């Protein structure tokens, strides 16, 4: 492990605001460019191959199923009612193939995303404190950390499903109990609450993963630790997610605009890979680094508060025996 001697890298000054965190994140990426550049290129290549594989694997079954739906718009209803299963064996086979291919793509995509996350967060955390690690040390950190984010993701999914159930139940209760005017008002309040909680939930999700990688906690403990670290900075964390949502939206609009000038399927795919996949990987990397820097800023703030709260008694020379 190498250490940089620049004092400016070792001191990060007062607590940073959103754009200050972005600037510090870019500086961290520059300090860690030798390691992050290969990680970004590898992630881009792997996601690009997955996109091509998905197109090749799904196209035959999807086209065949589309033709059968065109002939019989009630195809899924007929299959669900167990009517003439032999007549729909081809459609059932296509559905099974599509589901299997989707599961295959999602599994490999999740593995790549997890490794990309751990490599980016762990190396960026070291770079933030002016340390430079090599590829061997990064691989060791991945081996040590990969189980903890998985457990945290599992609990976050459970919590998310629970919230979705509560919100769905709330909409149902409003539709039954409330009158028309009151219902519309409650629907509006609930919809706004969903959007706000959605951005904040995404911030908690990402911060929990960062905590899982950088600290010796996982699952509910990582989520609680993330809430503790983000205490008093909920709005700032949510605004970071809003900013990245805007950036993601702009990147997709740019991709759609460029793709609209291509006429053939493979030419559209050739355009979507460098734009959609490339921009998506770059934004993910920046998002992970931003939350890593944000974590360190919040952690330093917590340490400062704890230090100020300590009481150190002053012993006079005459009181000493």
Describe this entry's structure for a reader.
By secondary structure, the protein is an all-alpha fold. Helix content is 81%, strand content 1%. The protein contains 11 helices and 2 strands. The protein has a two-stranded antiparallel sheet with strand order 1-2. α5 (89-128) packs across α6, α5 packs across α11 and α8 (180-214) packs across α9 (220-229). It starts with a strand and ends in a 13-residue tail after the last helix. 23% of the residues are buried. Mean pLDDT is 79; it is low at 1-14 and 310-321.
Descriptors:
single chain; about 325 residues; mainly alpha; two-stranded antiparallel sheet; 2 strands; globular
Topology:
Blueprint: E1 2-3, H1 7-10, H2 18-31, H3 33-71, H4 75-80, H5 89-128, E2 131-132, H6 135-145, H7 147-177, H8 180-214, H9 220-229, H10 234-259, H11 265-308
Antiparallel strand pairs: 1-2
Helix pairs in contact: 2-11, 3-5, 3-11, 5-6, 5-11, 7-8, 8-9, 8-10, 8-11, 10-11
Question: Care to give the gist of this entry?
Answer:
Helix content is 81%, strand content 1%.
| Class derived from helix and strand content | mainly alpha
Question: Any low-confidence stretches, pLDDT <50, length ≥5?
Answer: 1-14, 310-321
Counted beta strands:
2
Mean pLDDT: 79
Strand order of the largest sheet: 1-2
Total helical elements: 11
Strand portion: under 5%
Termini separation comes to: 47 Å
Shape: globular
Elements, N to C (H/E):
EHHHHHEHHHHHH
State Rg.
25 Å
The largest β sheet comes out as: 2 strands, antiparallel
Helix content: over 70%
């Amino acid at each position: 492990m190498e250490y940089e001697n620049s004092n400016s890298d070792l001191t990060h000054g007062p607590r940073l605001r959103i754009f200050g965190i972005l600037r510090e994140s870019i500086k961290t990426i520059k300090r860690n460019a030798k390691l992050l550049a290969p990680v970004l290129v590898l992630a881009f290549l792997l996601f690009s191959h997955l996109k091509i594989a998905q197109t090749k694997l799904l196209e035959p079954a999807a086209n065949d199923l589309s033709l059968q739906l065109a002939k019989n718009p009630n195809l899924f209803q007929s299959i669900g009612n167990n009517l003439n299963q032999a007549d729909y064996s081809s459609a059932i086979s296509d559905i099974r193939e599509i589901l299997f291919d989707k599961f295959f793509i999602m599994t490999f995509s999740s593995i790549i995303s997890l490794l990309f996350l751990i490599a980016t967060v762990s190396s960026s955390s070291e770079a933030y404190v002016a340390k430079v690690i090599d590829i061997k040390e990064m691989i060791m950190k991945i081996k040590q950390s990969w189980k903890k984010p998985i457990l945290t993701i599992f609990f976050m999914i459970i919590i998310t499903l629970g919230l979705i159930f509560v919100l769905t139940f709330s909409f149902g209760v409003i539709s039954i109990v409330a009158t028309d005017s009151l219902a519309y008002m409650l629907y509006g309040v609930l919809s706004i609450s969903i959007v706000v909680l959605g951005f904040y939930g995404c911030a908690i999700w990402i911060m929990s993963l960062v905590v899982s990688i950088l600290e010796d906690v996982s699952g509910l403990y990582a989520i609680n630790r993330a809430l503790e670290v983000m205490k008093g900075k909920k709005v700032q964390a949510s605004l970071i997610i809003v900013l990245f949502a805007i950036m993601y939206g702009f990147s997709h609009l740019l991709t759609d605009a460029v793709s609209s000038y291509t006429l053939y399927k493979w030419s559209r795919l050739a355009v979507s890979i460098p734009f959609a996949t490339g921009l998506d990987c770059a934004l993910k990397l920046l998002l992970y680094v931003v939350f890593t820097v944000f974590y360190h800023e919040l952690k330093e703030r917590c340490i400062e508060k704890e230090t100020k709260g300590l009481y150190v008694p002053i012993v006079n020379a005459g009181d000493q025996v």
